[in-house]
Amino acid sequence: MAGVGLVNVRKSYGAVEVIRDFNLDIEDGSFTVFVGPSGCGKSTLLRMIAGLEDITGGEIRIDGRRVNDADPIERGVAMVFQNYALYPHMTVEQNIGFSLRMAKLSKREIAQRVASAAASLQIEPLLKRRPAQLSGGQRQRVAIGRAIVRDPEVFLFDEPLSNLDAELRVSMRVEIAKLHQRLGATMIYVTHDQTEAMTLADKIVVLRAGKVEQAGSPQDLYDNPANQFVAGFIGSPRMNFIPAQLRSGNAAFAGGIHTVPLDGADQDILVGVRPEHFRVGGDAADVDLKVDVVENLGGTRYLYGALPDGTQLVVEARDEHGIKAGDRVPLGFAQRRPLFFNTSGQRLADLS
Amino acid sequence: MIGRTPWWSVTIVAVVGCIWIIPVVGIVLTSIRPPSEVALGWWRLDEFTITFDAWARVWGQFPLAQAFWFTALLAGLATAGTMLLTPAAAYAFHFLKFPFRRLMLILIINAFVLPQQVVIIPLFQLWRDLKMIDNIGAVLIPYVGLSFAWSIFLVKNFLEDFPKELIEAARIDGCSAISTLRHVVLPNATTPIFAVGILQFLWTWNALLLPMLYLRSNVPLPVLLTKMSGTYESNWDLQSVAAIVTTIVPLLMFLVFQRYFAAGAQTRSGAKE
Predict the structure, then answer these.
(1) Which of A44, A84, A87 best tests the B interface by mutation, with the highest count of B CBs <10 A?
(2) What is the rounded distance in angstroms from the CA atom of residue B201 to the CA atom of residue B203?
(3) Class of domain A4-233 (CATH, top level)
């Protein structure tokens, strides 16, 4: 088992710099998720750790060793690809055992290790089949089997679930979490899906345009986002951002009806409130929400609507049945103190 | 009805097919009738006797059997050479990085526009100076070398669609460049390799110019055919037999392997399309 360190890592394609001065310490045995919109460099970063992509500058360390110029095999990493990358001409058994065959292990040992990998993923009945005869979920298991059979120090996952249907995605997510508990290996996982990031990670690294926006535990990122980008990216549905004015120690928003005391110079600001932090109905209502669409998920429902000044909001209404599109619903902000951002998206220092 | 071939296209194809088959029928008929009967044309049916005299005599009068085996040897070796070297070269050009890669590729592909006739004289002088005239290598080397222009182009085009993740997965699994080629690329590239092999085989089996100029003692079938005509008086029947013997192998080859001509890239790593 080994930790991974990235020190001032840079990557450029010609004049275009896609990763700049990237620093990150990934602890031994942790589950780290790189998350960000497409094109943010998260896959490139993973491929640089894998050794599939040269790095332009800086240093990558695995288990304290500098591995900048090492082949993937010398780095002790295994990778699971988005589209599985199973060898189409080999059976499942041969696919899983291929790396061991390349490492010139004895036939007996290969058979043994393939069998135990297959057993742990419950794919023994598939061993004689070829990838084309497998379903998406089965292929993904084989791809994971190919990674675990080598007993690597670091597992790399490149959006492994994005080709699966929704139901399978959830169950494979749980399996990957179990796998991490069982193996205790360092895992680095790339996704654009914040739900996967929240549910799997010990540590989430939010990336944008090749830079770390924020790194921390999922709860930390949810409670204390450093800026508007992270606040908007983590959490589903997205956080609401309501334009407001900070005037002499009070933030006024929703047409000036609601005010919150806030330190700082007078300026235009944004108030961030998560959909789940509104209070719907009740007497302490601050503003009215005109509901346009109700998404009923059974246990909870999301109200899409607008404030009187036109600001679009998403609000979670957990217990209020019977709200219909077109209704006016009293909303309270008081459930939790909102977050404040300046107009360039940086979080403002707050009383709490 | 959708999906049905219209009657007129069937008719046109049938007519064209008949026109194409007429010379073949002519050759076969000429080979099995006495020369006197077909002197005015193989389609004359005034007298009609079938004799296998020519089929029996030709082997004794000309070294047809020897030429047959020699042609097979030449075409076989040249085809094997191309089938072994082309995928390796295409793989290197497509997936590996090395200095002057682009320049070398452009040079090789540019041989496309170079007609064979242009290189014949300089090549002849080279072989003469190297004392390679009448050496099997004198034709094998240009056979294989000249095939690279189109064969590398063809296989490299196929590799454009080859899933890059498979190459990367192989690297993660500990493959070197060579073992990636052997274990991952070649098993999934049989279609273009066979297509190249078949084309190369047909081309080298039918080749006339190079062996005629560079070989002396042992000659392949097309060269033998040219030597048969005019050497003796009318021997149309014998020439027909030799022509059939010469054509039959490429024809069978085509019939057996024709699906490779139509097949496209079918390698997929297993992702949902």
Answers:
(1) A87
(2) 5
(3) alpha beta
